Amino acid sequence: MVQVALTHRSRSKQESILGANEIEGTPVNLAVPYGVVHWMPGRVRVRVPRLSCDRPYGRRLQRAANRQHWILDVRLNPAAGCAIVRYRVEGLSPDRLRVALERWLARAGDPQADDDRDPDSPDRSGESWLSELKLPLLATCLAIGAGPLGWSISPVAIASTIAIAALPVAKRAIVSLCAERRVNIDVLDSLAISITTIQGHFLTSATMVGLIQLGEAIRNRTARSYHHEALDLLSSLARFAWVERGGEKQQVPLEVLEVGDTVIVYPGEQIPVDGRILRGKALVDEQKLTGESIPAVRSPGEAVYASTLVRSGQIYVLTERTGAATLAGRTMQLLQNAPVCDTRMENYAAKIADRAVMPALLLSGAIYALTRNAARAASILTLDFATGIRVSVPTTVMAALSAAGRHGVLIRSGRALEQLAQVDAIVFDKTGTLTQGDVAIVGVKTAEAAIDPMRVVQLAAAGEQRITHPVAEAVMRYANYHELIVPARGEWDYQVGFGLSARVEGQAVLVGSDRFMVKEGVDLDPLHDRHPDVLTAGYPKIYVACDRRLLGVIQYSDPLRPETVRVLEKLRRFGAEIHMLTGDNCQRAATVARELDIPPSHVHAEAFPEHKAEVIGRLHDRGKTVAFVGDGLNDSAALAYADVSISFGDGSDVARETADVVLMKNNLYGLVEAVAIARHAKQIIAQNTGIVALPNLSGLAIAATVGMNPMTATAINNGSSVVAGVNGLRPVLIAPSKSDRE
Fold this sequence. Notes:
The chain is an alpha+beta fold. It contains 31 helices and 24 strands. The protein is elongated.
């Protein structure tokens, strides 16, 4: 059944786009159920429930859209289970649009119709490998058949096959010469292949082509397609908002909200705009935007932001910014504008190899001028460093990525691995990264020695029961952990930003802030005199009083992850400078920093998403290679701007898809493993440079002085490449030593 919910459209318009049968409720035979939420010429929003529970379907739907000529753009929002489609109006009547939509949705609904992987992704199956290597393999088979096996094969056929197989090498050489105005290793390879093929050394040239293309295939496979599967933050908001216009309340679509509108936000609703509170008071959960886990009280005159949630209270907000102009919208724009870096691993070894091209070319020309022996000249061209490096470096990268995967760490690309090995500054988001992300009770202090701390918790739990507030929930968990019997609560009154009063076991119980206690005439001095550290510890707190007599205080916090301290110690041994970023206030940030021995200059508090990106930029300006670790939507911009970005498997979709490294076990120890593996891989790459360079330099000296057969030169060159390639597999065969990790 197609369920229809069109807005601001007449009956005739609804019938024209969906057909009368659907309007009347006649079942439609569709592979994938959907409903049209909103339609206007050139744009349609459809609700597809399957999107919210079937991620592979969403990927297939996106790829299917790329193949539909009538679709200009599509935005998928899995969280809301909807898709926004911009389409070509020309030649597409409403009836044809309906049919096209159904076919598009149905095609993506068939898993057999399309592979779940992106066809442009480097993580392809063996088919792409074979397609790249089938011609070099054919040329090699023909050369072996005509040579060692003695088959009667036309030399022209073999040479033609080699020439066709070598076309990619020739194209890269032409691009280097014509577009980049430089001579690179592809030029040398092209010359060596041409000379040996003309001389009839088919096996030598075919083997060269095969190894070169194998190295390219491996290197391309390690590349990461830099594509952010970013959620549309704004479309994840509710589709409608309540506004007050002309003294009347009315519900309108978000698209028609304007600056100056008075928006009414009720408990449990997201704030749809940026603005200032005109009337009312509310407890606002800003974790989605700032990362702060403890809701804040917002009163008239204070600013509130789109995508934040009203936990309790009701507010009237004067709209100042809407849509993409809101802070949430600008965050997504930051993400889209993040610099796109080269996805191939650029390493010093490859650059050294390229620098050796011109000397090799000159030496080869000089040898030919002196000896008139093309074979000796070709031998010098064959003895290059790049062939071995082209094979060994990507092999090492792939082995390291595989080893990281076995440790529960997903490293998306060779570039990320290289950057991870060079990181000398690591910036951590606080909430949910260094800390657990949930409020927990850290201490209970009493005003008098005779008062039982558990009685304080018991009365607080009695008052806080069924209150939807993180602190109230933490108090209830603490009471349940200690198996306390929570008394029933009688009449009660909750005041946003202050606390609550309730009748418990016939007594008047107060639970709330120090301001609330003073307002109710409760003296706090006995507690502060007995525990002066309560005021200086930096922990947030709630006081508990009974019949106007203070009983005690409950301190709470967002506790550190169990492994955080140890992980930071290990990262410091790697020489990394540790920074902490948080949307939390300065006092709470300083408290966490002291526990982790992070200097005040490395603590950046009250940071909104764009401020986090600025901190990353300042570290870049100091010449640092920066890693950023975060797990929330508010971290996505900083993740995108860092040299290497790290998130958790259970982080937000945007953070997880933006990150270069994903800690699938949701444990910071994975970061230590990832850095150790990256540094281990870097050491192996340096070793492989020596393995490739020494034999080829020795062979080059021999070829230049006494001469060398091209086949021997190829054996030296290819042999060193094979040894380096096998050595490059060590990360997956041998785990890094304990000293590397610690």
